Amino acid sequence: MLKVFGGLLLVILLLSPFLQAKQFRTPERALAELYPNARIEVINITLSREQQEEVQKLSGVRLDTRLVSWYLVKSGKEMLAYGYIDSHVVRTKPEVILYTITPDGKLDVVEVLAFLEPLEYMPHEEWLKIFKGRKLAPGTLRHKRDIPNITGSTITARAITDNARKVLALWQVLFGGRR
Amino acid sequence: MKRVLLFSALFSSVVFAQSTEERIRELEEQIRTLQQEVQKLKEEQRKTEDIKQDTEVIKEELRKLRLEIAIPQLKIKTYSGLGPAASKAMFNPRGVSIGGYGELTFRHNSVNARGGAKSIADVQRLILYFGYAFDEKLKFNSELELEHASTSGTHGTGGGYFKAELAFLDYSFRPEFGIRGGLLLMPVGIINEIHEPPTFPSAERPFFERRIMLSTWEEMGFGIYGTVNNLDYRFYITNALMVKGGGSYNPLEPLKTIRQRGARAVADRIGFTGRVDYTLPYNLKVGFSLWTGDVVSKGGSDSMLNLRRGSKLGSMTMISPHLWWQYGGWDVRFVGAYVNINNARKITQDLQGTSTTTNPIPSEQKGFYLQVAYDVFRLLKIDNQELYLFGIYEDYDAHSEVPQGYAKPPGHKLKVYNMGFSYKPHPLVAIKADHARLNYRPNKKDENEYRLTLGFMF
């Protein structure tokens, strides 16, 4: 019987990476894992109407809030990245996406923090890597043209792509010298 | 001419002196006005600063609120005297709340698991917590329990029962003071109140908690509770205990026969129970619990002394110190108990008749258990999952004293060596396996138990 128990323990140890229950991570935790040893500061910014309109004009996406929160990822005085959490409804349920932007205005990481739609619609990691290095420029972030579709998850793919433009436009207006 | 010149000189100096004084007065007035203006500006600046700070606070709160809605985080919290799943109703601000837990077990006993069989697979407990918040302070909470999958004796080797284990109304005036009344869990030991399977590492509740602390033990009552700084307290008045009679008496867990559990409990006499916990740094909790009250007869055909139902037979007092440390992956627990049964002879006679050859109700019980558990996944830097390895040592005597003339029953002393693991792929789910070595003394064969449990709560 002891051997059975030992075997069970071994099986659990081997299976534990696959059994891991998906739990939602907070932005602070996700950023701490993406940028180890970095310091994370939160700033909440109220946009003027002009800034809101400029973001919409630059991205072609509606910005339905003037209160935005950014996560500044720093190491000492050096800025490593800017993080933004975008929560939007995909079909009927929300998804929460973390976008990080390098100090020179390129997308660094796009990661799903929470996805409440059925999991078959959730984008896979390889697809999310396509965004790395993209800037807010014509012909870089258009769904189905610059960014490929995800078969069977068109609405998800479109939402993440459109909001990537919105987040880059926000960064441009707030931190990219066009304030 | 000289006179005229002198007069005009004098006049002009007087006028000059007068205009200087006026000028000074004017300047002083201006300075006062300016000071008032500066003061006003300072106040306005302070107000603007305050408003700015307020705005920042509101913005930050909005950010948190948005995140909480978008990324709900699992918070495992316990409300005064209740496990995490049972606490759900107490934290719910309004309306219905539903929770529950399950304990599905496999047990192999080297001597006898049940009626001669050595292995038993059992839906030991399926629980439904059902609560309602009338408002933020007034709540109803209940625990409905189905034991052993069925209430039918013809299913398997016999089903169990469906009963209420908890049903009370609670009014919290403030964190320091609340009142509750109904069917309450007795606040003794650790497991009796917080017994959802993922909250403790062993495959089954420790023997000491079940056989000496009488888990699960609930009685009708009312009382007060609260938290004052680091001090948690609960004090209840309950119905008395009653000898069950009817021939069901297990000398390995003798006092389980005197619980009433809210089933038309005889309340001619009362009991008193309470508990105090003090939280020290590093989440180290120390405290003690107490139960003291009368033991009465069930009367009629269940009373071997032919007493009236509710007649007093004796009394029971249980005093139990405890220590509980959950910190940095450790879960260390100690529970001790000293139990004194006054007039155990009369209680035994009412239960068993006047012959002294029967197994008696003890006049004294004492013992303790110590648990040390650690989440080894912390060492392997594995997040979001836990793997507790644990050891429990139990040492108690269920009949350390018996009424004069009676013999102590076989196996009244028990030492348990329990080792195993609890794997939690999710904080609300536990897969547990362990081995318990039961060393009975005297005249009872030692046992080896191997147990596997699937436990969950929500």
Description:
The complex is a heterodimer of chains A (179) and B (458). Chain A is of the alpha+beta class. Chain A has one domain (23-175). Chain A has helices spanning 2-19, 27-34, 49-59, 125-128, 154-175, and strands at residues 39-46, 67-75, 78-89, 94-101, 107-115. Chain A has a 5-stranded antiparallel beta sheet, sandwiched between helices. In chain A, a hairpin with a 5-residue loop joins strand 4 and strand 5 (107-115). In chain A, helix 3 packs across helix 5. The longest helix of chain A is centred in the last third of the chain and has 22 residues, at 154-175. The model of chain A has no long low-confidence stretch (mean pLDDT 88). By secondary structure, chain B is α+β, with helices and mostly antiparallel strands. Chain B folds into 2 domains: 1-71; 88-457, Porin. In chain B, strand 9 and strand 10 form a beta hairpin. Chain B has 4 helices and 17 strands.
| Tally of DSSP β-strands of chain B | 17
CATH topology of the largest domain in chain B: Porin
The run of helices and strands of chain B is HHEEEEEHEEEEEEEHEEEEE
* Sheet of most strands of chain A: 5 strands, antiparallel
N-C termini distance of chain B: 115 Å
Output the radius of gyration of chain A.
Answer: 19 Å
Using only CA atoms, what is the Rg of chain B? 35 Å
Helix content of chain B: 10-25%
Distance between the termini of chain A: 70 Å
Strand order, sheet with most strands of chain B: 1-2-3-4-5-6-7-9-10-11-12-13-14-15-16-17
Low-confidence stretches of chain B: none
- As a percent range, the share of helical residues of chain A equals 25-40%
Q: What's the main sheet of chain B like?
A: 16 strands, antiparallel, barrel
Strand content of chain B: 35-45%
Question: In total, how many domains does the architecture of chain A comprise?
Answer: 1
Structural class of chain B: alpha+beta
Spatial shape of chain B: elongated
Average pLDDT for all residues of chain A: 88
